[in-house]
């Protein structure tokens, strides 16, 4: 089932999400719905707060980026209660977008690689080191769990340039090809 994507301005995107408990009801269906929603919107990552659920759950599939970034080939993951344990010192700035901010693309500086632990869709604990653009996708989605959004760190000038677009997103005035839910302010 395709779910509406909550847009920038909605308070759920600013909450600190809670851990997913063991035996969370309907988890399998929720994960399937999140993948369906993400693919429908042509996204490569989706965090549960973006569908209005303040829980620590991410779905990711970087495969559409694999031509430009080979490390994304087959990078499909479900991450439950992820914890990034280590960030590389080396950082790179690359352009990002977000399904909750349609039409906005900004360069974001991020560490090149991370070490992360999480539970997979079967609640089996996994640990891995992830690098390149795949690490960027994970970090972007992970931030959503702490109420952060990728444009939070952009310069005042860049923010000013995006002001009109952001106002329109808050009002729900977007040209999205997917279902959305605006804050209604
Ligand atoms: Ni996002």
Number of strands: 9
Number of helices: 4
Largest sheet composition: 5 strands, antiparallel
Radius of gyration: 16 Å
Q: What is the average per-residue confidence, as pLDDT, rounded to a whole number? A: 96
CATH class: Alpha Beta
Give the termini distance in whole angstroms. Answer: 27 Å
- Helical content stands at 10-25%
Q: What class, by secondary structure content?
A: alpha+beta
CATH architecture: Alpha-Beta Complex
Structure explained in plain terms:
The protein has about 180 residues and is an alpha+beta fold. The protein has one domain (about 5-180): Peptide Deformylase. The chain has 4 helices and 9 strands. The strands form 3 sheets. The chain has a 5-stranded antiparallel β-sheet with strand order 2-3-4-7-8. The chain has a two-stranded parallel ribbon with strand order 1-9. The longest helix has 14 residues, at about 25-40. The protein starts with a strand and ends with a strand. About 30% of the residues are buried.
Layout of SSEs?
Blueprint: E1 5-6, H1 27-40, E2 45-47, E3 57-61, E4 76-87, E5 91-96, E6 106-111, E7 113-119, E8 125-131, H2 132-144, H3 156-161, H4 163-171, E9 180-181
Parallel strand pairs: 1-9
Antiparallel strand pairs: 2-3, 3-4, 4-7, 5-6, 7-8
This protein binds nickel (II) ion.
Nickel (II) ion (NI) binds next to α2.
């Amino acid at each position: 089932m395709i779910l509406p994507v909550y847009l920038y301005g909605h308070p759920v995107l600013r909450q600190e999400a809670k851990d997913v408990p063991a035996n969370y009801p309907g988890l399998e269906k929720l994960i399937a719905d999140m993948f369906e929603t993400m693919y429908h919107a042509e996204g490569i990552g989706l965090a549960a707060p973006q569908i209005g659920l303040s829980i620590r759950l991410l779905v990711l599939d970087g495969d559409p980026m694999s031509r430009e970034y080979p490390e994304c080939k087959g990078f499909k993951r479900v991450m439950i209660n992820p914890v990034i344990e280590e960030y590389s010192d080396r950082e790179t700035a690359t352009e990002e977008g977000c399904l909750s901010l349609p039409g906005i693309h900004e360069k974001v500086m991020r560490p090149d690689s991370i070490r992360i632990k999480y539970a997979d869709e079967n609640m089996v604990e996994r640990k891995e080191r992830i690098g390149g653009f795949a690490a960027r996708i994970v970090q972007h989605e992970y931030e959503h769990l702490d109420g952060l959004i990728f444009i939070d760190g952009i310069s005042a000038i860049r923010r000013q340039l995006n002001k009109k677009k952001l106002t329109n997103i808050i009002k729900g005035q977007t040209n999205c090809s997917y279902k959305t839910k605006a804050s209604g302010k």
